[in-house]
Write a structure and sequence with these properties.
mainly alpha; two-stranded antiparallel ribbon; 12 helices
Length: 325
């Protein structure tokens, strides 16, 4: 599949990053660097001024009273909402229409490349580039943990430009199908809608999408990518495999670097473990919102987990807070 992005590669931008790409063996990044930059600019504009303008219009009684730190956190959730909806829709579209991707062998799933999969990779990298910049400029708000997450996620997504497991980029992005419901849940809490019927229905959608996309769909494909990596360590591609157009960037006898495989698999396994942990914590948090209060004041733990995206990334944050029932 050809890259569906409507803007062609920018020659001067590709030449600018070419030395770095050669040094770190990011072979396909020059073809998609303009998409990474475009995504980062899009999310920057959503963060400011679009989010403040829309939030002042839709929730003037809530947004205008927020202090600086909570307002920045609100705007970051707006970006997360836009990013998750956009990239989920594009990932589903690529999975459905990319016939070349669908016909890939295990060798092509490891070393192969299609423009559609690379576009998803680039948009995800652009989001984490934006995340890294915003977190660095507002470290007092988002904390060192979020900064570490942004750096690690950007590193992992960049591996796809070697290319490496380019095939799996739209699959693991679909873990984010639960993120819109999580953001809605978060906004309802901030707007005084905790415990409402609307939040209950959204909670069912959140738990159902999280269980289906992350625990079932995600765990199964984590098993698949581990199997492909295992085959790659035992049988590198031969010359007969390189005639495929999707293997245009692979070399005969290519191997997967140990550090790259460990970085990808360790982050994937870590997130899979946390997915199960988060699921049970979310069940507990949703239940507490709808349990009758036993007294005038009953502490309720609100577990916030910003699940931004990704294919094989590290959790952004999980910050417990207490609120009155």
């Amino acid at each position: 599949m050809q890259d569906p992005f409507p803007i062609p590669p920018v020659p001067w931008l590709a030449e600018l990053v070419q030395p770095w790409c050669d040094r770190f063996n990011l072979t396909t990044l020059p073809l998609h660097i303009h998409e990474v930059v475009a995504a980062a600019l899009l999310y920057s504009v959503v963060f400011w001024p679009i989010s403040p303008l829309i939030s002042h219009f839709l929730a003037p009684d809530h947004y205008s009273k927020l202090p600086r730190k909570r307002r920045l956190n609100w705007d970051a959730h707006v970006v997360s909402m836009v990013q998750s909806c956009l990239i989920n829709a594009l990932a589903i579209w690529v999975i459905l229409v990319d016939d070349e991707r669908r016909a890939m062998t295990w060798e092509e799933r490891i070393w192969g490349y299609t423009g559609g999969c690379a576009l998803i990779q680039a948009l995800a990298a652009g989001y984490f580039l934006w995340d890294l910049i915003v977190t660095s400029l507002n470290l007092d708000v988002f904390g060192i943990g979020t900064l570490a997450h942004a750096m690690a996620a950007l590193l992992v997504y960049s591996l796809g430009f070697r290319p490496l497991v380019n095939y799996y980029s739209p699959i693991f992005i679909l873990w984010e199908l639960s993120t819109p419901f999580l953001n809605i849940h978060w906004f309802m809490d901030k707007m005084g809608m905790t415990g409402t019927r609307a939040q209950l229905y959204n909670g069912f959608l959140l738990l159902g999408s999280f269980f289906t996309c992350r625990l079932l769909f995600g765990t199964y494909h984590s098993y698949c990518v581990m199997g492909d990596f295992w085959r790659a360590t035992r049988s590198p591609p031969g010359i007969e495999k390189l005639v495929s157009s999707s293997m245009a960037f692979a070399d005969e006898g290519a191997t997967v670097p140990v550090w790259a495989a460990l970085a990808y698999l360790s982050s994937n396994l870590t997130l899979n473990f946390l997915n199960f942990y988060w699921f049970f914590k979310m069940i507990s948090a949703v239940r507490k919102r709808f349990q009758p209060a036993k007294g005038a004041v009953e502490p309720v733990t609100e577990v916030e987990v910003d699940l931004s995206t990704v294919v094989a990334s590290i959790p952004e944050k999980a910050q417990p807070r207490r609120r009155k029932a």
